[in-house]
Amino acid sequence: MIALRSVLFNTIFYANLIIRMIVLSPYYFVVPRKTAYAIPKNWALSNHWLMEKIVGTTFEIDGIENLPDGSYILAPKHQSFWDTYALLPWLKDPVYILKRELMWIPFFGWYAKKQRMIPVDRGARGKVMVEVLKRTKEELATGRQLIIYPEGTRRPPGAEPLYKYGIARMYRDLGIPVVPVAMHPGLFWPRRSAVRRPGHFKVRILPAIAPGMDPDAFFEHLIDVTEKASDELLVDTVARNPHLPLPPTAVERLAQLRKATAASA
């Protein structure tokens, strides 16, 4: 049944994306950019509805009140394609720094350009990165929210954290709050897999880290608060969903947490 529901969901998910891009393009490219943002926002909401109705996956968000007004960096854990779009309905005007190759994809690239996403050559250094930082500052000056995944790439649930120091440099150079986000969508929408699993999980938006900390101290603090919340949610998610098959990384991390709890008792 899970395999059948996964195939049905994936088929409708991509059809939903393609049809919306084609049918709504005349409206999207005529109206002002901020008005056009309603289209990707509603697309994200429709995906949540499809996940619930077809797969049986639901989620809740704790800490919406922790999202500041104006500009900030949103720094979520990254486990799945799900978390690339999931929070769009709750963000006023987000901007991504993304691989320049994505801008070459028909329709997707055009939509991203309309929303003034910031393309970057990941292998670039020097002047190119200076230009990216300049573009980022220009967008944030208008009150936008920058989405950065501190670990850079998708990691399986429970995996040893592998944060990139670039988030600390952005924190230092941009001088705006950073909002960590912990969640485990990878247990339901695993990376590199077509399987979609039913269940319920939490997304936890943590208190914003104010600007002005030493970058090294900020980096350590970001990892500490995010990973503590991530561990708590891993235990909670597995307890809520005992049917879930767990990846080895999650099994190992749960064993470590149980051992630490027993040792401190």
Spatial order of strands in the largest sheet: 1-7-6-2-5-3-4
Report the major sheet.
Answer: 7 strands, mixed
Q: Outline, from the CA principal axes?
A: globular
Distance between the termini: 42 Å
> Which residues sit in consecutive blocks of at least 5 with pLDDT less than 50?
none
Number of domain units: 1
Succession of helices and strands: HHHEEHEHEHEHEEHH
Strand content: 5-15%
Q: What percent of residues adopt helix (DSSP H or I)?
A: 40-55%
SS-derived structural category: alpha/beta
pLDDT averaged over residues? 94
User: How many β-strand stretches?
Assistant: 7
Tell me the Rg in angstroms. Answer: 19 Å
The number of helices is: 9
GO molecular function: 1-acylglycerol-3-phosphate O-acyltransferase activity
Protein name: 1-acyl-sn-glycerol-3-phosphate acyltransferase
Organism: Rhizobium mongolense
Keywords: Acyltransferase, Membrane, Transferase, Transmembrane, Transmembrane helix
Task: Describe how the helices and strands are arranged.
Layout: H1 2-28, H2 33-36, H3 38-55, E1 57-62, E2 72-76, H4 82-85, E3 94-99, H5 108-114, E4 118-120, H6 127-140, E5 145-147, H7 166-174, E6 178-183, E7 199-205, H8 215-240, H9 248-264
Helix pairs in contact: 1-3, 7-8
GO biological process, one term: phosphatidic acid biosynthetic process
Keywords: Acyltransferase, Membrane, Transferase, Transmembrane, Transmembrane helix
GO molecular function: 1-acylglycerol-3-phosphate O-acyltransferase activity
Structural overview:
It is a single chain. This protein is 48% helix and 14% strand. It is α/β, with parallel strands linked by helices. It has one domain (61-264). The radius of gyration is 19 Å and the shape is globular. It contains nine helices and seven strands; from the N terminus they run αααββαβαβαβαββαα. It has helices at residues 2-28, 33-36, 38-55, 82-85, 108-114, 127-140, 166-174, 215-240, 248-264; strands at 57-62, 72-76, 94-99, 118-120, 145-147, 178-183, 199-205. α1 runs antiparallel to α3 and α7 packs across α8. The model has no long low-confidence stretch (mean pLDDT 94). A seven-stranded mixed β-sheet has the order 1-7-6-2-5-3-4.
